[in-house]
Amino acid sequence: MLFALICRDKPGHLQVRMDNRPDHVAFLRKLNEEGTLKIAGPFLDDEGKPYGSLVVIEAANKDEAAKIGAQDPYAKAGLFESVRIRAWNWTFNNPANPSNP
Fold first, then answer.
1. For the chain, what is the mean pLDDT?
2. Closest to 74 in 3D by CA, of 34, 14, 3, 33
3. Which of 55, 57, 60, 77 lies 20 to 30 Å (CA to CA) from residue 88?
């Protein structure tokens, strides 16, 4: 099952994001190599600066998705003000199901 991790940064924590970005990217690359990561990227404010993240992963259930998300170096560094985890159905443009509905 797919889960979207919708993460919002704490205000004024851009430097925390930047300081931990190399480890965060390495973490996502590892998830990608394992086939767990489906899509990921930052939310951008009106000035083009990141202020959160969207990470879609495959996990057995919501608890497993939360455990994976907690291992993100951004989470470990205390970057996020909030993290919402939502089950997600990739309907359109899913390479695993190119026929679409």
1. 96
2. 14
3. 77
Q: What secondary structure letter does DSSP report for 10?
A: P
Q: Quote the CA–CA distance of 55 and 5 in Å, as a whole number.
A: 5
In this predicted structure, what is the pLDDT of residue 101? Answer: 67
Integer Cα distance of 26 and 70 in angstroms: 15
24, 72 Cβ separation under 8 angstroms: yes
Tens of pLDDT, residues 12-27: 999 999 999 999 999 9
pTM of the predicted model, to two decimals? 0.93
HSE-up of residue 86 (Cα within 13 Å, Cβ side): 9
